[in-house]
Design goal:
The chain is mainly α.
């Protein structure tokens, strides 16, 4: 299993950064196959996280290059992120306070659901965004993530035309990040 952590995850990470999404998928598939033989919940959670991240980055890349939405990639991102969330039932990820990965998972779920842009998906996206907010508000060392989350909340409020409320959300985010 240590080979998975030592080689496959960094290869996947750099493949994503190089926009080589198929390569990242191949290495993640290899890592998942290894973990089927010798399960490790922490490594499995990281692979699920990378799978969701890879699908989301692939979506963003294709949208920027082709101007087309690939909703299948968003759904794939949601699938892998929800698999990570399901692991929470058997493992307490909250013990990793320095960088709680589940915070990124909730934010990624929020982002993907909001991009799907149906009424139900938007409600799910906002629920995950508020769940992320409730977590980052309790963490002293996550100021950059506070800014990201509050910006997303402000942007969503601005889409409704309530610009004063959006400004207040942005200001609240800045104040919490400066503490």
């Amino acid at each position: 299993v240590t080979g998975v952590q030592t080689c496959a995850l960094p290869i996947c990470n750099y493949s994503i950064k190089l926009n080589k999404f198929d390569s990242a998928d191949r290495y993640l598939d290899k890592a998942l196959a290894v973990l089927q033989k010798d399960p490790d919940i922490l490594l499995l959670s990281r692979i699920y996280w990378f799978e969701g991240y890879n699908a989301d980055m692939n979506y963003n890349y294709l949208k920027a290059k082709t101007k087309k939405d690939s909703l299948d990639l968003l759904r794939e991102s949601i699938y892998w992120n929800l698999k990570f969330v399901s692991l929470e039932k058997s493992y307490d990820f909250k013990e990793y306070r320095t960088y709680p990965y589940y915070t990124s998972i909730y934010y990624n779920l929020s982002s993907a659901y909001l991009k799907l842009n149906t009424r139900e998906d938007r409600i799910s996206g906002l629920n995950y965004l508020y769940k992320t907010k409730s977590i980052v508000d309790t963490l002293a060392n996550m100021n950059f993530l506070k800014l990201i989350v509050y910006k997303a909340l402000g942007d969503e409020k601005a889409k409704t035309g309530d610009y004063r409320a959006a400004i207040n959300i942005y200001k609240d985010g800045l104040a919490k990040a400066e503490k």
